[in-house]
Amino acid sequence: MGRQSSGFDKLYEWQQNQPGDKEFILHDGPPYANGKPHVGHAINKILKDITNRYRLMRGYRIHYKPGWDCHGLPIEMKAVSSKAKLTPLQIRDKAKKFAREAITVQMEAFKRWGVMADWDKQCYYTFDPQYEAKQMEVFYQMYEKGLIYQDFMPVYWSPSSGTALAESELEYNPDHKSKSVYVSFPVTKSSEQLENVIGWAGRDVYAVIWTTTPWTLPGNKAICIGPELRYVCAEDPDNSNIYICEQSFVDKLSELLGKSLRTLNDFSGSAFEGAKYTHPLTGEELPFLFGKHVTVEKGTGLVHTAPGHGHDDFVIAINNGLKVTSIVDEKGQFDWHAGKELEGRTIGVDAEEKVIELLGNHIIKVEDYVHKYPYDWRTKKPVIIRASKQWFVSTNKLKNKALECLNEVSVHPKSSENSMQSMLGSRPYWCISRQRVWGLPIPVFYHKQTKQPLVNRATIDHLKSLVLEHGSDCWWKLSEEELLPTNILTKMGLGKASDYVKGEDILDIWFDSGISWAAVLSGEQKADLYLEGLDQFGGWFQSSLLTSVALTGSAPYKSLLVHGFAVDEEGKKMSKSVGNVIDPEKVINGGKNKSKEPSYGADVLRLWSAECNLQSNVMIGPTILEKCNEEIYKIRKVLRYLLGNVNNFDNLSLSMHQLWPQDRYMLHLLHQFGTQVSEHYDDYRYGKVMQTVEKFINIEVSNFYCSIIKDRLYCSDKESLRRQSSQFVQYHIINVVTRALAPILPHFAEELYQYYPNLEQHKDDSIFKGGWFDLDPNWYNKSSANLIKPVLDIKDHLNSVIVSENPVEFDVIIYASNLLYEVLTNFQMEETSCSSPLTEIMQTSYTVITKSHYPQFQRMYQQKMEYVMFMYKQQHRICVNVVGDIHQNQLKHHVKDALMSWQGIGNEQVFVMTK
Asked: Where does the record place the Methionyl/Valyl/Leucyl/Isoleucyl-tRNA synthetase anticodon-binding domain (predicted)?
């Protein structure tokens, strides 16, 4: 009679109340609350649950609070689908409702997948007032340390979203087509070195640049050159114009101009020092500047520099005191800085063509250029680089310490170790401000006259109290006098509330989720594990690391585990338009409305997730799911058979010497199996766990052990020791295998556990409360494996001779060498037996073993023969199997002669097998 399971819903609460000091903290990276769960969610949540359930069974108390990332543009865009003009509070209300609905749907799916958590009481949401107040505190502490600052800098800007984006919010389209241009800028002021090289008088000299963003040319403020590169003057024979470019570009320039240029001389890039050129659109005289970013891999060796629209350009401008101006507004349109003829034109629509038209004969060539280009990850449209006033985290100040802390973090799989370091090392700053309303407002006020930001301990503490009381809606609901009371300003001598205006930016959602360690973990707690997809090296892993290093000087995690992404069976990305999307709900429950999709249940989805390759994409489709289903069915069938065999078993006190040799051998294999499974779990190799289980169940248990024990089980007395010996082993196989499967297939394991023998050891109502399996060290015995090997070899020889015939129809006589005879007596004490361990392994009618040296075989024994085996079927001698280190040609002759003279049988009746 099986026990009644308590289900999964109370398991997390139960384990939290268990005694013990061992704790395992898996901090949940919050999924985005913007839609139905997909198979990517399944991979992530199920891998986390497998990890938690394994640690629980190993005696750890699990700390796992599921979370949701609830703010941000994607939710705002989905919630506000109408074009009606809405107030910020109306937008926020719609977005919050949308997020809550998505959370409800996702949570129900996670529960159905068997994810263990306290779903009612212990989840976190980034829009909770307590979470937002903690986030404000982290922001202020970083600001106070000088790690957060406001500046006018170029950032990735999405015209389609109307906001700044971080690097982690970009996707790169490898097939983007840009309109690239080669442009000649007239050099109007020579340096002394250039004067000597060119011979200036009466010549028009042009510096040639190349750019894939011609819309940035009105914002050009310098041309950068490489001081160590070699440049040349190339003369146009038709009009004596001179073009300057890097020396390896001359041939390409001749091709672009459609004429053969004559190289006059070459010189170092340092010769440009002091030279100037005139901008053909603005008439400004501008400098040549040295830049380390100038290379010969692309372009002309002369780099167009627009400080308001390029990261390297900005650094050059700051280092050389150039003015930084953006010529494009929030919508991606030229503003008045670009000039009257360009104002109002849109990047990617008509801006490029107009710039090219205005440059006239300064354009050498226009070409289409296909290359990888950043797109907004949500709108799937191109972004631009645009300088604007934003809030930043100074990653340069944190980078060295963060990299140092990463050395203490273990990464699984190890091949991914360098991904985080390389991404972090290339990040100059982190833009954390967004120009939207669905998020936590940046808690800063600005002086109306000076535009200087106001943020200090008093203002932050007051805002935190308001957020805890009203939520972050208070930023839009309350008046500025309520948000910034006069009494606070008076104490600081900072005037009155009417002198200030509140900021209009919100915090980046990566900052939202990046401080989750501070909101969810308490005190000095550090997560044992963060487990997310590969893309989080540049996302949540990194934002969590930077904020934690800023406040605590250490990483918030001890280990990182990463996994790949779901693709279809052909390795293609899933897309609704292609029709290759796999819905996890349909995997579990099957299709509706006469759909033919089978229902597999949650454990098939869990098995598929467990078998994913951590380093690469994870394929899923009907064929793969059916294979997973068949794997579970095969395991289920074998374990069900074993359960039936041990139904009335109650003797766990048997000692090893009371067991049959093959039973001791199976316990040895079981010990090896359990050790391997534990090692795979410890290394997060859950696919290896399942491979090990399948191999053990199919080969060792089903093909070998189950095939030989039937007579002992069904023909022996129920109380006989020979029967109990096998039941003892079968019980332990069931127990170890079921517990090995439990973290991955909890529904299956719990069901199977309910039908365990009703023993004292299994009074718990859940297999997870009983802990991991125990492997008796006495089970591991190499001598038992060595002892049975010759017997298994003989069995293999027997089967190779009789092929498809049933071995039970044969009687076997084995004439053994002295050494082999001593081995065989461990399996059969008497000379002849129909029920010995040896006969059971051989599966023959009866087995005879003898070491009598009949004269007919004397010569063969002297030649190191191991054994001669006779197989009889229905009183007809049909085969002789001889194994030994003897000459094959002599062997057959000796055996045939011996048998014919000894037993008087005909030559045609003797078949000799040798090995």
From this structure: 663-782
